[in-house]
Write the C-alpha cells for this entry.
Amino acid sequence: MIAAAVARRLDLDLGRIAGGTFSCRFLGDLRGSFADRERYEEALARGNPLIYSVSTLESAAGDGDLSYGLGVLMPGKIGREYFLTKGHLHAWREAAEVYVGLRGHGLMLLEDEQSGESKLLPLSANEIVYVPGHTAHRTINIGTVPLVYLGVYPANAGHDYGAIGERNFRNVVIEEASSPALRDRMKL
Ligand code: S6P
Ligand code: ZN
C-alpha cells in the first residue's frame, strides 16, 4: 500500500512524529515504579516534573503493519535509581520490538516473562536493541541529557502494564560509584 509508505518526520527536539499522538508521564504517574518509595514521595512533594513523553504513530492497517513510538526520557534519579519508563509486556506476547537510540545515554532492561532472566543492554545514539516476544521492557536514562529513542513494533502488539504494575521488574538499575549497576530488587 503505497500511501502507507509516505515518509514520516521525526522532530527530536520536540519528541514528535508527524501525525502521531502525544502523551506524557509525570512523576506522579510513576508511583510504584521506583524502588525507594520514601524518596519517591519526598520528590513528589517537591514537584511533579515530566519524566517522559511518547509520540505514537499507530498503524490503521492492522495485522502485519508496524507502529512507531518516539520516546524522550528525562535525566534524573530517585535516590540512586535512574529515571525510567513504566515498562510493559506486549498484550500479544509473541510481538517483538526494535528500539533505535537517537540521542543521549541509556539502557534497556529486559526480563523474560517465562524464565525471569534479565538483560541490561545499551541504548544510546546509534544503537539498536531487539526486544524478543514474551519480554518485559523498560527504558532507563543514565545520562545527563534527555534520552531519545524510536521503538518499532507490530501494529497489533498492544500494551500490557498490569503484570509489571503488580510485581515490577526483578532487578533495578542504580548508580554505584558513579556507574550504573544491576541489582536484585529484594536485596537492596
Ligand atoms: C511501545 C514501545 C515504547 C514505549 C515507551 C514508553 O511498544 O515499547 O514506545 O511505549 O518507551 O514506555 P511505557 O512502558 O510507558 O509504554
Ligand atoms: Zn513495547
